[in-house]
Amino acid sequence: MGNMTAKVSCFARAYHYKNNSIHIFSDNIAEELLGDDYNQIEKNMSDGLDFFCPGFKGTKEEGLRVIVDKQLSPSVLGRSSFCEDKLKACVTNGCRQYVVFAAGYDTFSLRNRDKSLIVFELDCPQIIEDKMERINKARLTSAMIGVPCNLADETWKNKLLSHGYDKDKKAFGSLLGISYYLKEADFEQLIMNISEIMTEGSAICFDYPSVDESGILI
Hints:
Blueprint: H1 3-19, H2 30-34, H3 36-47, H4 49-52, H5 60-92, E1 97-101, H6 108-111, E2 118-123, H7 125-137, E3 145-148, H8 156-162, E4 172-175, H9 184-195, E5 203-206
Parallel strand pairs: 1-2, 1-4, 2-3, 4-5
Helix pairs in contact: 1-3, 1-5, 3-5
């Protein structure tokens, strides 16, 4: 998942929180983390209305809401809400390690108040570095442990272990938005690799593309 894809996912969460009184998923930190990029993405979406919504009639503000609500938010908000609900259930059952694969600009570590839960975030070095710079610039507080790595390289397991992950203790893993960018065999291999470092009682959460009755990819 590239840097821009991660930013757009973060923007979708931020826009939803900022522009709705009832939230499917409440991310009150996403806009702060994006900083100036929030306004830039908002402008780019509005300026690209003809591309995103051909034939749309209405104001740029109305068009932006259609883009976010219909195209960006559904999967991002739904999977985030589902994942964090399952995480809470696992924490209640004694899980104290949360591993966010391809973390991007996920904000759980910035919203989390449970100091007993250790949060590991895995992503490419440039995104980990950029995220830390944003956290510092916004004067936010995060106890996350960043693990710069490439999930296509199996050395990520050793890197995670070297950053304090305990494979003999229960963990919860998040793999949101990853399956769309991998071949089926590669995603299967990733799951197998994860199973090697997660003990009994651990759990993972992931989403994947499907096809509806009409054959349309959803």
